[in-house]
Amino acid sequence: MTLRVAVASSDGKFVNQHFGKATKFLIFDIEAEGKFEFVEVRNTAPSCVSYQQHDEEELIDTVDLLKDSRVVVVSQIGPGASQRVIDANMIPLMYPGFIEEALNEISLNLDKFE
């Protein structure tokens, strides 16, 4: 089984973007044996317009952009965006730190994300 993961990162090393402020998501596939592979970068417009307010259309577009992912890894995510992600059958995961560490943690717990 392959698990697709979207990671909000501005630099490709750290999970350092809030879901609503992210301008891009890095897409990875994690294989059952724990190996992960970078797939692509997906650019998006930030949906967060101010503190606790978002552009609904941009939020929907971002969720649609990631809908083939099972897990969305971000540094932060608000309750509205989190619910949209969950409603799209994805799991929001807050993990501010190194991308590699987040992917390793997910790969060790693949059964929780199926």
Automatic annotation (TrEMBL):
Domain Dinitrogenase iron-molybdenum cofactor biosynthesis intervals: 11-106
Which Pfam families does the entry mention? Nitro_FeMo-Co
For this protein, the record's InterPro entries field holds: Di-Nase_FeMo-co_biosynth, DiNase_FeMo-co_biosyn_sf, NifX/NifY_domain
Under the heading SUPFAM superfamilies, the entry gives: Nitrogenase accessory factor-like
Q: Which Gene3D superfamilies match?
A: Dinitrogenase iron-molybdenum cofactor biosynthesis domain
The name this protein carries in UniProt is Dinitrogenase iron-molybdenum cofactor biosynthesis protein
